[in-house]
Amino acid sequence: MDMAFPREYNILKKDQFKPNFLAVIADSKSGWIATLLSDTAVKCDIPIKVLPLNLPMPGSSACGPYASSFGDFCRSDHTAFWGVGVDAIHMTDTADLRNPCYHRSCDDWSYMRQENWTFLNQIISILVQSVYDHVTK
Fold first, then answer.
1. Cα separation of 124 and 63, whole Å?
2. Which of 7, 31, 111, 116 is within CB 3.0–4.6 Å of 54 for a Cys-Cys bond?
3. Residue of 31, 48, 65 whose CA lies nearest to 123
4. Is 19 or 117 the better-scoring residue by pLDDT?
5. Terminal CA-to-CA distance of the chain, rounded, Å?
6. How many Å apart are CA 38 and CA 21, to the nearest integer?
7. DSSP assignment of 38-69, as one string?
8. At 91, phi and psi to the nearest 5?
9. From CA 48, how far away is CA 116, in angstroms rounded?
């Protein structure tokens, strides 16, 4: 990430990589969704850093011929949508890189602290408001 998105990497590094952000991975066709989410967080004064990570090409290329350069950005369900030309994003707080139990049998509710619930509620608020703004414009 530090080479492809140095500005965003430095924002996270300055904050010691605290899990208080939402990275939104988009390809060149779906960057508008990442921007909408970021703008909504600011408009609604939701204190999450929403970092759009817009790839410079369609996802079918980024995750196809250029996968060696963008492989980490192609590790989820959104890549199947990109492959057929549908706008899609991947939202992550990179918990999978910090939590050794992420999506494993040892992952359970006991890991959820109040700040996790607050973070989840803030993300849901951003999503709901963004969808509402998009469909009512």
1. 28
2. 31
3. 48
4. 117
5. 34
6. 11
7. HHHHHHTT---EEEEEE-SS-HHHHTTTTHHH
8. -105, 135
9. 12
Structure confidence at residue 66 (pLDDT): 64
Residue 38 contacts residue 76 (beta carbons within 8 Å): no
pLDDT at 41: 95
Could you give the count of Cα atoms lying within 13 Å of 89 in the half-sphere of its Cβ? 22
Let me know: does 50 contact 24? Beta carbons within 8 Å. yes
Alpha-carbon distance of 120 to 22, in angstroms, equals 11
Query: Residue 40 in contact with residue 126, Cβ under 8 Å?
Result: yes
Confidence of residue 64 (pLDDT cuts 50, 70, 90): confident
